[in-house]
């Protein structure tokens, strides 16, 4: 017989994520951890940006959406405001119990 305070829920019941109509993954707190890759007209990569900014760019005609290898990306139709890029790092935890 276990006490209620010491019981652990399985990871699947704790991770309540929902995919919105824009394709963002919304977590329990309503946070979106998605960034959209951006390239310029010459196919050079720029810094990723937020989905809300991408929606504004597409609506105004400043960018065109496309899919590359199953990943949603945007191509700028206008000259970018800055061409500086920062190094990006991907962290992988092989012992992680869940994604997110």
Q: State which percent range the strand residues make up.
A: 25-35%
- Kindly state the mean pLDDT as a whole number? 74
The radius of gyration is: 19 Å
Structural class: alpha+beta
Helical percentage = 10-25%
Counting H and I runs of at least 4 residues, what is the number of helices?
2
Q: Helix-strand pattern, N to C?
A: HEEEEHEE
Poorly predicted runs of 5 or more residues: 5-20, 24-32
What does this structure look like?
The chain is an alpha+beta fold and 100 residues long. The protein has a domain at 34-81. Helices cover 14% and strands 25% of the residues. It is built from 2 helices and 6 strands; from the N terminus they run H-E-E-E-E-H-E-E. It has helices at 11-14, 51-60, and strands at 18-19, 25-26, 36-39, 45-49, 63-68, 71-76. A 4-stranded mixed β-sheet has the order 4-3-6-5, with helices on one face. It has a two-stranded antiparallel ribbon with strand order 1-2. The protein is globular. Mean pLDDT is 74; it is low at 5-20 and 24-32.
Key descriptive features of the protein:
100 residues; alpha+beta; two-stranded antiparallel ribbon; 2 helices; globular
Please specify the SSE layout and strand pairing.
Blueprint: H1 11-14, E1 18-19, E2 25-26, E3 36-39, E4 45-49, H2 51-60, E5 63-68, E6 71-76
Parallel strand pairs: 3-6
Antiparallel strand pairs: 1-2, 3-4, 5-6
What's this, in brief?
This protein has 100 residues and is an alpha+beta fold.
